[in-house]
Specification:
alpha/beta, TIM Barrel, 4-stranded parallel sheet, 49% helix, binds the ligand O=C(O)c1cccc(C(=O)CC[C@H]2O[C@@H](n3cnc4c(=O)[nH]cnc43)[C@H](O)[C@@H]2O)c1, binds zinc ion, A_deaminase_dom
Length: 353
């Protein structure tokens, strides 16, 4: 249990239950998962960067005034990743952090455009993530899969490049399962990305755009109708549209909810005002995720503790939430059954002890 993340309003034994609970993480960004140790190590290697080298100074550096400020800081960390070896190290260390939290399966959102435009060779980039994925599975038992996302604000050039990297048979990595859209939403309309999503879907990828994180429910509708979203990244503003909530519930389209992220980027004012309760009340399939954990001073276990408090969950409720995460994942049926069984076995043993 990470002491600074112990929520005093959640019983300690529930924190301990969460710490050992097998979980799936469906919404977590590659660069946004770099631990303070990795960020400071990379910053020390690149003294021209404005990113602090002192891990303690990172707490202030990772305090955001709004979403635009968050993206600005995020890109300063992206600037630290300059070689394929940086990419490999980051990916492997992210897997280690996930494994420590009993994450059995994670879909990691990667923005290959940001790396290739900064001069990392595309072949070497793919080899680096795949090499780390295989090593992580063999050494930690955590299965990683990739979502390649378009950094929407970088324009259609970035959409074209991301679609090419995701669909070219000579480049497309084995671990790639989905196609996303990230970055700021304001002024970046979802429908313009339809042709790129069409190509990715035709190549067998799942559609998982961010939508409704910093704009209204109409963005979520656009993601559903234009980009054929199978899950929605955040979808926070869906709570403002009862018809949309009913649609999401009826079609079993999961929301990838990241509560602490929404507070850190100031998309939502306080955790108590977070709409997660409305989602559950409307019957929407909610999954719990961490987004950019070290940047937001959180981790997946803490997000489960937050959910336990906001939704008043006990061990059985938390186990059900973890199983919903597995169900909403793009794992195959035997893979889902394996983790679900593990959750049931763990929970039964915990309750019997
Ligand atoms: O890489 C560039 O050069 C570049 C140029 C212009 C714009 C961008 C971006 O907008 C990058 C956005 C970046 O942010 C990632 N991310 C991480 N967390 C979140 C989130 O909560 N909501 C949306 N985006 C997020 C995203 O994956 C992109 O990599 C880049
Ligand atoms: Zn995100």
């Amino acid at each position: 249990m990470t002491e600074h993340l112990v929520d005093p309003d959640v019983p300690r034994d529930l924190h301990a239950f969460i710490a050992g609970l097998p979980k799936a993480e469906l919404h977590v960004h590659h660069v946004g998962s770099a631990s303070p140790r990795i960020v400071s190590e990379l910053a020390a290697r690149h003294p021209d960067s404005r990113v602090p080298t002192d891990p303690e100074a990172l707490v202030d550096y990772f305090t955001f005034t709004d979403f635009a400020h968050f993206i600005d800081v995020y890109l300063s960390v992206v600037d630290l990743i300059r070689t394929p070896e940086d990419v490999r190290l980051l990916t492997y260390e992210v897997a280690r952090d996930l494994a420590r939290q009993q994450v059995r399966y994670a879909e990691l959102t990667i923005t290959p455009f940001s790396s290739t435009r900064r001069g990392i060779d595309e072949r070497a980039f793919m080899d680096a993530i795949e090499d780390a994925r295989k090593a992580a599975e063999a050494e930690f038992g955590t299965v990683l899969r990739w979502c390649f996302d378009i950094p929407g604000e970088a324009g259609l050039e970035s959409a074209e490049e991301t679609a090419r990297l995701a669909t070219d048979d000579r480049l497309r990595p084995e671990g790639l399962v989905s196609f996303g859209l990230g970055g700021p939403e304001i002024g970046v309309a979802r429908p313009q990305f339809k042709p790129y999503f069409d190509r990715a879907i035709a190549a067998g990828l799942h559609s998982v755009p961010h939508a409704g994180e910093t704009t209204g429910p109409e963005t979520v509708w656009d993601a559903l109708t234009e980009l054929r979203a199978e899950r929605i990244g955040h979808g926070t503003s869906s709570a403002r549209d009862p018809k949309l909530l009913a649609h999401l519930a009826e079609r079993r389209i999961p929301l990838e909810v990241c509560p602490t992220s929404n507070i850190a980027t100031r998309a939502v004012r306080t955790l108590d005002e977070h709409p997660i309760k409305e989602f559950v009340r409307a019957g929407v399939l909610v999954t719990i995720n961490s987004d950019d954990p070290p940047m937001f001073g959180t981790d997946l276990n803490n997000e489960y503790a937050v959910a336990a408090r906001l939704l008043d969950l006990d061990e059985r409720g938390l186990a059900a939430l973890a199983k919903d995460g597995v169900e909403a994942s793009f794992l195959d049926a035997p893979g889902k059954a394996r983790i679900t069984d593990e959750i049931d076995t763990y929970t039964a043993a915990w309750l019997a002890s």
